[in-house]
Structures are given as structure tokens and as C-alpha cells.
Amino acid sequence: MFSLTSGLLSALHCSIAIAAVVVVRCGRQGLGEIRCRHQILNPLSSNAWEEPGGKLKPRWPTALLAMLLLASQPSVVLGQFPGQLRYTYDAAGNVVGIDRITKPDLTVSNLVLRQLGSLPTGAYSISVTFQVNNSGNTAATGTWTDRGYLSSNAVFEDSNEVLVGYTTRSTTLAAGGSYQVSATFTTGPATAPGTYTLFVKADGGGGAGQFAPTGANNVDEWLESNNTQSVTVVLPAKTADLAISGVSVGGISVNQVGALSIPVTFTVTNVGSDTAPANLCTVATLSSNAVLENSDTGLSGYYQRATTMAPGESFTVTQSFTTTASQASGPYTMFVKTDGRGAGGLGGTLTDNGLLAESFEGNNVASLPVTLPVRADLTASNVSIGLISASQSGVYTVPITFTINNTGGLPALPNFYTSAYLSSDAVLDNADQMLVGSVLRNSVLNPAASYAVTQNFTTSATTTSGTYTLFVKADGRGPGVFGTITDNGYVGEANETNNTQTLSIALPAKADLAVSNLSVGTIVRNANGSKTLPITFTVTNLGALPALPTFYGAAFLSSDGVLDNADQALTGKDTRTTELAAGASYVITRSFVTNTTTPAGSYTLFVKADARGNSVGLGTNTDNGYLAEVNEANNVTSIPVVLP
Length: 644
Known about the structure:
Elements: H1 6-13, E1 23-24, E2 26-28, E3 34-36, E4 39-41, E5 49-50, E6 57-58, H2 61-68, E7 77-78, E8 85-89, E9 95-100, E10 106-118, E11 124-134, E12 144-151, E13 161-162, E14 167-169, E15 178-186, E16 194-201, E17 228-235, E18 242-249, E19 253-254, E20 260-270, E21 281-287, E22 297-298, E23 303-304, E24 314-322, E25 330-338, E26 365-372, E27 378-385, E28 389-390, E29 396-406, E30 416-423, E31 433-434, E32 439-441, E33 450-458, E34 466-474, E35 500-507, E36 513-520, E37 524-525, E38 531-541, E39 551-558, E40 568-569, E41 574-576, E42 585-593, E43 601-609, E44 636-643
Parallel strand pairs: 1-7
Antiparallel strand pairs: 2-3, 3-4, 5-6, 8-9, 10-11, 11-15, 12-13, 12-14, 12-16, 16-17, 18-20, 19-20, 20-24, 21-22, 21-23, 21-25, 25-26, 27-29, 28-29, 29-33, 30-31, 30-32, 30-34, 34-35, 36-38, 37-38, 38-42, 39-40, 39-41, 39-43, 43-44
């Protein structure tokens, strides 16, 4: 910048009349210098001015006029940018006026190519950001457009392709101000692939004359040649381009083993300029860090498009994708990828470009947050035991009441069992006895729901009396319902360690029949050769549980003092048809008869409670009878007898 002294200004005010004016645009090149077209003028140099007769005049008017005057115009204006001064001369070369020229000056900076794409029409889309600045000394007003142009020879000229998608500015831009623009320009369908120069012009035109690409257009500016900035763009070959959108997740459900089913709705569109082939697949993955990577969990299931897709064609489907049963509940990012691989057994990787080479691979993926709900969680509670009994064969019946609860976030699906087990060491393991009587649940148990059951469970006949730990397990398995006692059952749950409740249980001693007070009356020899023995004996239940009917009292003759299966079972068994309570007893007095061929002599008479053998018609003389007892050895007593 430079200024004139007050004396100079006074001299200018005394100048003579002005002829026609021609404006010449000049700009500063250095301190005190003004560039006017092709000549450097320095108005502050010591030999630039003279003052003959009290009038200020330049020393070089003739040369200046020869260079700058148009036709016969006698006056000229010199300017300086950005605070340009305008000098006016008369025909004699005297400075007759000076004032300041004020104009806006639009420039473009920070042009960045953001994204290239191809459209179904065959056109290309070019997304950019840039900044428009007003480098002038007054505001840019009115309305103007910022446009893009495509040049095949890196020269900005009117023959360049004017791109579709200009932005309109109708707000005043103050001197020194700027604004940011994000724009997407579109080529024509016939634009060929290749390398181009993209020019972006502030106050750009798309017509002819003043409004041609290189024209001055709408804003009268100090300098019209600095309105553009350029960047190289490479337009790829035209191909199909699959884009996914409209992704949403429906209600998540669970199967019995705990695998979650996630229904996903999505739209796939061919936004490219070529047909996409058939049989491309859409897959889904779960990410714990919101980044799609090959370590993410690929979900089972995929959607396969069976037909080709023309440019512009789209389809919308709902596809269910399935997690593993072990997939933890909680928040994830779901990625849905068309032309995807790496999941569903399709080969490849989650992050590769798929089977289709596309013009843009970045729009194949959409993501959204998804929260996997807490699975069902079965627990057993309120376990109690009723009156324990035992069958004649020694099987304990244990009435158990319990409640099964679903404390999880999803329904527990049928069918699952509640089972009971007896442990002698208070640890549930696969060696423990699984009781008969598992309860089947054949309907859904919803979250926060429960049901109560009273069920008779039975032990094996060989289970001995004593103290045990009773385990009641929701979703329990083992012999009889498949699986093992300690496995996780049929229902995939949020917590597999809280399915059991325990209780100490005492199995009472079983019945125990003992024979005592054996006596024999007068033995009578019958006419047919048989002998009748009047026998009296007492049967007592020494056990803690009743002796259940039916059981028998019988007598045997042994010639060697040992009861064995060769000994004679005497006719006349006693049949017990009522229960014998614990601690109770009864007396049997009966006549037992030998066979007709039994010789006279000395024998041992055995009397046995809960006896079997020939006299009963089942079993043998020495078996344990019908009644399972605590002690099978005290059922027999004997005395010597002499048959006449």
C-alpha cells in the first residue's frame, strides 16, 4: 500500500476537466510497486513525479499513454490490489483525480476429492469439499453459483464438461470472509472412464458469453482469473455397484439350545452402471468394538440373490441370522454386508471385497447397534420332601415338591425335565443315582414365570437306608432322559450353575422280618405215610418301614442241618395279606405236612418268614423272598425234630 501527501491531494483537487476514462487493472508485486499489464511502475521513486508551475505531473505520461490508452481516450486509471488507487490524467498528462477502487474477489481453496461413484445411468458422481474466499476489499453480494467442470487436457476452457450439481450462494460474503462447501457433482452418462482434471470455480457459469465457464458470470470482481482450483480425478471403469441400506432388526428369539435368531430387514440396490450377476450373498456379523474385522463373529445364515440385478434395481428382504449357543448377551454392532463372505460357510473373509468387482466397495456394508438379550435362566427353589415309603421290593418312594423359575430374559422353550438325584458325598457327579420320575415341561416358560410340582421319585431296589444329599435340578438329564447328570441339559441358559437346589434326606431302614419262639407240638403219622407237624412261631418286623404284603411263612425239613434248595418244603404255608407295621409282630400256628414218602427219623425243621420255594410255587428255598429287607439272614430259625 502507499498514500499521497496532503500537498499532492491539494494539487489533484485543482486539476482541470477530465476527458473519458479507461480503467486498467493493476496489482501489487512488491513494496510500493504496481504491476500494470506488462510494465512495472513505481510511483514512489524519486524521479517519478515533477511539479512545474505548481502542478503535479508524472515524468512518463507519453510512454504510459502509448501503452495503455484505448483508441484516442486521453485519460487513464492506475489501480493497486487489494486497496487499489485510481489515478485520472488529462490530455496533457497531468494527474487530475485519485480515488480508491473497491471490489470483491472470489477464490477457491482447500479443494479435496472425497469420493467417486458410478450411477445406474452410467454417470459418475464426484463428491468434494472446498472453501470459497472473498479476497477483495468489499462484500460479494447477489446470487452466484459454485460449479464443477471436467477437463480432459488440464486446461480450464469453455469446452470443458459442465458437471451437474452446482451450489448456489445467495448470502452476502463479507470482504475477507469464506464459506465451506460440500458438493457432489455428476457427469453425463456418456463420460468415459479415465484421468481428468476437476476444476471448481466460484461464481462459475454454465452457459455462453458472460455466463460461459470462463466468463465473468454474476459477480463483478477485481480479478476474474483466480476463481478456480483443480484436482486430478481418475474415473474407474463402469461396473455394477451394490449398496445396502434400510437395515433394521426385528424381535430376537432363542431356540432351546440357546442360539439367538436375529431377523434383519435390508435393501440392496445396484447403484452401478452394469448388471450384477446372480447368486451373490448378504451376510451378517457381530462386532464388540464397532469395527468390522476378520476376528468378528460371523452369524449363521445368509441371503442369496438367485437372479441378476440390472442397474438401478433393488430388493428388500428379511433374513434371520443365528448366533452360536455360547454367544454372550450384551451390546454389539451388527454389520450387514452384501456381496459378503467369511460367514455362513461361504469361504473368504469378512473384510474381503467379495465375488463381485465393483466400482465402489465402500457402500456394501451397513451397521447398527444391537443388544442380545439375556437368555432363559432356570432355577429350582422351595424344595421339600414328603413321607418316604418303600415298596415290597425295596424301592424307596420320595415325594418331592419344588418350584421351577425362569429368571432370564427370554422364554425357556419346551421340552426339558426337572430331575432328582441322590448323592452320598454331597457332590453332584455322574456316579450319583438318578431317581426315576423326572418331570417333563412341555410348554414355554416365559421370563419371570414359574411353576410348582409335587412328584414321587423312586430309588433303585438296592438303595440302602441312610443319609444322602438330594439334588433337584431344573433342566436335568441323565440315564432315562439322555445326556449325563452334570451336563447343561436341553435349554441353553444365561447361567448353567444355578439350576440345582439341595436338601439333606434320610432314607429310613426298610422292613426286617425275624422269626422267633419256634415250637413244635405232637407229630402225627398219617395213614398215607405223611406226617403232620403242628408248628407255632412269631414273625416280627424289626425294620423302620412296614412290611408290605403279600409274603409267606413256610417250613422245611433238612436231613443235614443246612437249609438248601434240595430240602423238602412242607405243605401248609402261611400267607400274610396285610401290612406288618414297623415293630409289630404276629404269631403263626399251623399244621405243616410232609410228603408220603418221608421216612421216619431225625431232621432239622427250618421255619422261614418271607419264604418261597415249592410250597409257594415260586422262587427257591434259599432266595430272599418277595420283601426287600434290611437283613435277609434273620428270616429263618430252626429246631431238631424226630419223625415217627
